[in-house]
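At this stage, I wrote out one protein, both as residues and as discrete backbone shape codes, and that material follows here.
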Amino acid sequence: MIRRRGFTLIELLVVITIIGILIGLLIPAVQAAREAGRRAQCLNNLRQIGLALHSYHSARECLPQGNIYQSAGQCPGIDTEPQGSSYATQSANWAIALLPHLEQEALFNTYDFNHPSETDANKAFRETSLAVYVCPSDIDAQTPIVPASGPAFDTGAKYAPGSYRAVSGRSDINGHDTGLNYLDSQSTLISYKKNARGPIHMVLPLWKFHVETFDKIRDGLSNTLLVGESTTATSPAQRTFWAYPYAYYTLSGATAQPRILWGDFDRCVSANANGIQVPCKRQWGSPHSGIVNFALCDGSVRSIATSIDMTLFGNLSTIDGGEAAQAPD
């Protein structure tokens, strides 16, 4: 007579425990592998943006404006002052101008430059989510929402989120730490020295702030930041919106405060005893732990540690500051 012996209760419990331990070990490994893939895709997006900016420069002999005025030209030779208030005539930005160089010419051709982006004429355009402008790790980046300020806030216009902003310059070169720099009004622009400017910023010809060319980046293409991640885990209305040509929503600057690299708007604001928000509105930040990804002016990409010395970070954000700054590996 053959006796069939099954699992005892203790053996079954041991097997279940082992399986549970293996699953516990496997899930973090799978999550880590997925995050590594998302981080690689994020770097690839920045690489594409950097190469597209080089293509734009080759075609037009300049880099695009940060925010584009209807009445101002886009490359060297601009000599007219935009009419109206600082933001009234803004019609586009660097991210919109770059679309034909990112194989998005069909979308670019649907944009009506004769109307502001917040009008109904550009509703479908501004609500379009573009994979190249969104880091895969960026949470809630697919649903259009209303930005926290400007004409979009006034009209309730929704915009598709983005994850990347251009480097407008350094804000603390004259001892200021407000975060205001080359992306704001005329009064702000003239209060900062020209050697604080970054590669892509607002253009005001009357004050001699023109678009930049690569030969003006005297600090070195490989040591100057061009475009980087700007995400926030809180206050989504303060995040990046790729098609919004207003103030800081596609432009950020370098302030000598570590909080601008945290990627958390609410935490950034609460870290200042006086509740000063401006540097936080112009912050950088990444959903990847401990780093913020950047494209540099030479077309390379780099992961910058959030623990970077902030003086060095500021030096890397200017194109003609004369600093002996080298981007960390």
Observations:
- The two ends are 73 Å apart (CA to CA).
- The first strand starts at residue 67 and ends at 69.
- Confidence is low (pLDDT under 50) at residues 76-88, 177-191.
- The chain has nine helices and seven strands.
